[in-house]
């Protein structure tokens, strides 16, 4: 890494079926190993010559890594023969500038009946997703600018996390939502409360009820609006 003539792609969350055996192991507070590695890689990337290998077969992992490492280049194998969804992978892994991904597709093109046509189709899918990432098409389709900003703020605050989580029900989930963090972010709590107001208009009620614990401060904040 000290030699800026060279670049390195570090294995992070690979596309092979057994990747989760080690790379998704929890190393504390529900954080999987691959996300800790992504965080460290962002710190190590002092010369802008370090990237990460994150399989296109796992868009949730791509999105989680991109959230932790917003500037790194991602090498994302797995499209085609391994079953990776190209469009889902591109949307999950692109940087905000529409760049930041290398997508190797070898067998999918080489074994196609018309390799030229298949390559052109894949290029079109990639470019369409890049345009969306750059804002030519809404990045948050269906959301108002205010709600889109709220979604981004919740993600940045750690209220929404991506990884491998075991819920109280015992079910596995790639997403964990922890709104208890809002108690230490009064500005964000007020924004969340404000988002509920349009939903409550037109309803007749005497009291607000909230389930402990995360919903209690939200209900209080709504009542103060």
SSE topology:
Elements: E1 8-13, H1 20-23, H2 33-44, E2 50-54, H3 59-68, E3 74-75, H4 86-93, E4 101-102, H5 107-110, H6 115-133, H7 145-157, E5 160-166, E6 172-177, H8 186-200, H9 215-223
Q: What does this molecule look like?
A:
The chain is of the alpha/beta class and 225 residues long. It has 2 domains: 8-133, Alpha-Beta Barrel (TIM Barrel), CATH 3.20.20.70; 145-223, Rossmann fold. 42% of the residues lie in helices and 12% in strands. The chain is built from 9 helices and 6 strands. The chain has helices at residues 20-23, 33-44, 59-68, 86-93, 107-110, 115-133, 145-157, 186-200, 215-223, and strands spanning 8-13, 50-54, 74-75, 101-102, 160-166, 172-177. The strands form 2 sheets. The chain has a 4-stranded parallel β-sheet with strand order 1-2-3-4, with helices on one face. Helix 2 runs parallel beside helix 3 (59-68), helix 3 runs parallel beside helix 4 (86-93) and helix 8 (186-200) packs across helix 9 (215-223). The model has no long low-confidence stretch (mean pLDDT 84).
């Amino acid at each position: 890494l000290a030699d800026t003539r060279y670049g390195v792609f570090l294995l992070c969350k690979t596309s092979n079926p057994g990747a989760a055996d080690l790379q998704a192991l929890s190393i504390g507070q529900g954080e999987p190993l691959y996300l800790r590695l992504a965080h460290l890689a962002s710190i190590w990337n002092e010369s802008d010559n370090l990237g990460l290998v994150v399989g296109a077969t796992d868009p949730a992992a791509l999105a989680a890594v991109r959230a932790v490492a917003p500037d790194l280049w991602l090498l994302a194998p797995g499209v085609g023969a391994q079953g990776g969804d190209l469009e889902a992978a591109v949307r999950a892994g692109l940087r905000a500038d529409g760049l930041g991904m290398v997508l190797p597709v070898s067998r999918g093109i080489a074994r196609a009946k018309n390799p030229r046509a298949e390559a052109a189709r894949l290029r079109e899918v990639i470019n369409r997703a890049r345009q969306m990432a750059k804002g030519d098409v809404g990045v948050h389709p269906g959301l108002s600018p205010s709600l889109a900003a709220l979604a981004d703020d919740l993600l940045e605050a750690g209220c929404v996390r991506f990884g491998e989580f075991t819920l109280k029900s015992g079910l596995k989930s790639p997403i964990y939502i922890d709104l208890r963090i809002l108690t230490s972010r009064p500005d964000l709590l007020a924004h969340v409360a404000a988002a509920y107001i349009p939903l409550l208009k037109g309803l007749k009620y005497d009291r607000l009820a909230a389930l402990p614990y995360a919903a209690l401060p939200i209900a209080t904040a709504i009542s103060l609006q």
